[in-house]
Dihydrolipoyl dehydrogenase (Lactuca virosa), 508 residues
Amino acid sequence: MAMANLARRKAINLFNNTVSSDAARYSFALSSTFTRGFASGSDENDVVVIGGGPGGYVAAIKAAQLGLKTTCIEKRGALGGTCLNVGCIPSKALLHSSHMYHEAKTSFAKHGVKFDNVEIDLPAMMGQKDKAISNLTKGIEGLFKKNKVTYVKGSGKFLSPSEISVDTIDGGNTVVKGKNIIIATGSDVKGLPGITIDEKRIVSSTGALALTEIPKKLIVIGAGYIGLEMGSVWGRLGSEVTVVEFAPDIVPSMDGEIRKQFQRILEKQKMKFMLKTKVVAVDTSTDIVKLTVEPSSGGEQTVLEADVVLVSAGRIPFTSGLGLETIGIETDKIGRIPVDKRFTTNVKGVFAIGDVIPGPMLAHKAEEDGVACVEFIAGKEGHVDYDKVPGVCYTHPEVASVGKTEEQVKESGVAYRVGKFPMLANSRAKSIDDADGLVKIIAEKETDKVLGVHIMCSNAGELIHEAALALSYDASSEDIARTCHAHPTLSEAVKEAAMATYDKAIHI
């Protein structure tokens, strides 16, 4: 027993000495890499981030967590960028509120919930949205304080690759210095020739989130994610919604089969579509907005009337006014900043992330960029796989996808199999009377490796992350199928689709 105890103590001492030695080496490495910016007493930062949106504020927090002295510059005076202030968050608030109203009006009685009248209190609905925005913005400021990120409110402009002149929102000016500068200024609404957005009758997504009255007729120009989401909000609240799209299909990036079923569901919700159609003129001289449209290929013109027109033709990188030309930063023909795999621009010490660089313009993609970028700056390794970034359209049902569409797989020449499972056969979906949609899985025929997953159902935006994890680890459809899924859940439809991909589903 004594010998055993002695051996145990020796083993513990050896372990502790090893850990202490490793910790000392790690501490020395950190001090060698990071402490120079603190020792001199200079005001120079290790990292300066221009932009406080999802990419920028996440990059700033991560940099501070890695021990880098960090400052974030944000012109809005409210953190969170477009996403939190006039994009993702307010739109989801209104989507949820409008869905609750629509369900109360059309579905509650079937579930035995009855009442005399349902009314819309639009100011209260907007107030709930604004409260959510305010709370989340303050939450990010709290995270900045917790992680000791310096927050400068104002518009930044390059003086040199290491100096940013900031016109602060209180009317002053200051110069912020940094060894590494990250451009994270996001994107702006893409306009259309001949159409002036006044955010009253001709609105962008920003104006569509702040309407003070429910329009009787709403025309949406553009059948992308944002246009369909905003069309859904106001359609549920009583607007007659018409979507005008230049392309032959809605949401061109979506899997073709899913897209067609999605459009049919939206049409059942009374959303009208005019595809292969372009707007050639807009008349706002009267109380009613008049749009002249014609086929995309040319032809007979038609005049459409609306109370409000939403321009939802996409977004463009926001890089104007940053003084990029002062330091020689290159941009491509649509204004994006080319970067290498470490997010470095053509100017040493200057980096770019998020919507200002190539890749999907998504908040969560920008966050991943921000983390990876500062990891590279800190001497670590960062990585973002843009082929495995999930996308979600937050209509009802939601449509979510990750990986390749069937069209993309077919074009690549890879032999593949497809497995599908309808939500009509899912017990949870049937029990809650919400069974529109399906799950579709595409896998390589020879190896069964999952190549793409597409989900259309309520809460598809939550279900998609099982698929994202599967793709990240090169899982097979059989791997998903042999993973036990709780019953009854919507996620069982993913399991069944996986079973249908490599073998046969059980419940259909």
The first strand starts at residue 45 and ends at 50. The longest helix spans residues 2-34.
